[in-house]
Amino acid sequence: MFGSRSGSQPLCPHCLRKLKLSGMRFFCVTEDERRHEVTLSLADKFKKRLPVCRRNFCKNKGLTIREAECKHCGKPLPPQILFHDKYLSFCAIGVAGAGKSSYLTTMLHELKYSGLPWVLQPMDVATTETVQLREHNVYENRQCPEGTKSGIAPEPQLWTILDNTEKLEQIPTYALTVYDGAGEDCEHIGYTAADAEIARYIAGAGMLLIMFDPLLLSSVRGEIVPEILNASMATERQTSAPANMVSMANSLANYIRQSCNIKPGKRIDSRAAIVLTKLDALRDMPGGFGSSSAIMKESPHAKARGFVESDSAMVDLEIRDWLNRQGETAFLDAIDANFKNVRVFGVSSFGNPPDRNKRLAKVRPHRVLDPIMWLLAAEGIIPQL
Fold this sequence. Notes:
The chain has twelve helices and eleven strands. By secondary structure, the chain is an alpha/beta fold.
């Protein structure tokens, strides 16, 4: 029975409408890729189960269907999306070159191999192909992943988390949907048809990951070794980040308020993780983070198998203090004024800056799991310590 344990409702990851058996179309696909629709029987509807092929002379007769789609938007869906105990989602947004794709690649890789009692599995072929390509480029070829293309609505990554914390006959499962929009699109969210899909993902996400590239700040650029700065910049962009980040925070908040019918001035309930990226480039910066600071120490959350609140609160305080010293109080004020539930994080996707040819050393991510551990603790999946 889908959604039975927590009562949470599955959503179509594309149109964000509530999903149920009657709201999906199911298909049988044979080895020669012939495809025909399979309808639900009365027993399927009563028992809330996936249908099997019942077509005479079909090679798959009696077998459970392989493909499905949403009746509302027509987009393909993995049939197993209906059968999870909790449904989690987050949307990574930020200015162009902030490192969203790099972060998502290493974060998901670390989530799979962190030693936590979870098994992370892609739900569909598109997610499998995306993660395999990105992981191969980063971990094997030592190359930074390409950024998300502007003007194209991103295909959501669909994951299943199997929670093996307790040795039960049937273990809890969580559906995790990840949205990654292009920086250029996130900076200028409008109200045209072309923007609608990306904006809908942002408004419907359970948590917003607002990625913030410190290397776009003029106060930082003048203090970093030029070789490190040039190697760590993903784009040739020369515009200053403060105005862009403040504008993006305000336009995001305005869009969410309008789409969710929230009164002006009322803080948005959506969880907002503000993520300072490329922490490795700030390591030797004068006035940066010292080796004794909490943010530069190994994250304790995965080892503790829970979210260590005291550590996260200290990291939040250190980054806020650093941003204030950089003259970036306007960005923090915009976030705090618009979002009710905010936490600031700092991460390094690779552990070290790329070399002058933008090649990576051995990838050693730093604190990339902290934001998602915050989300998991809020959902009651891991304890808050």
